[in-house]
Give the backbone structure.
Amino acid sequence: MFIIGITGGTGSGKTTIVNEVINLFDASEICLLSSDSYYKNNASLDFNQRDKLNYDIPEAIDFDLLNKHIDLLKQEININVPNYCFTTHLRLEKTTVLEPKKILIIEGILILTNKTLRDSINYSVFLDCPRDVRFQRRLDRDIKERGRNYNDVINLFETRLDIMHSEFVEPHKTFCDLILNTNENININPLINVIKKNLR
């Protein structure tokens, strides 16, 4: 199994790029894991407590489970991926079965902060995008898809996300094999060529 990591700040275009790449290949050859599925389950806390947690630090991700699942996929064993609800900040009871494929794409803001996961990734891609563009994308998404309040999203970005980006996301650009500017016409051919090479 060849593992590709795709990372970058919130609103940098990870989901867009991943979907574009996956649609170019047969579903029998490539599979996807999002670190968003592996937010820790804080069911012991009430909603107000969960709502105040910082979800943009490495400690928010259950990397133990994520790394365990990757090891199982490498052994050609199916995994049960958690389904996470961003409205309630809880894992749902129902999981999604994921079968191992030749290519595994892992995407997420914090994936390179974990050394075990970083060492498992064969090829890493950083999506570089200006702060203002990322901010607008995040604002649109959180209001339309996650039912968030306009002022709350702005406050979160300005008081937390900017700081977390500088501390946990941007520094890991140096680990990446490919850096793509996602504010312009994006040339994903280098990534496509890597996938094709490892499917042969």
Summary: The first helix runs from residue 14 to 22. The beta strands are 2-8, 30-34, 79-81, 84-85, 90-91, 96-98, 103-107, 123-128, 178-181.
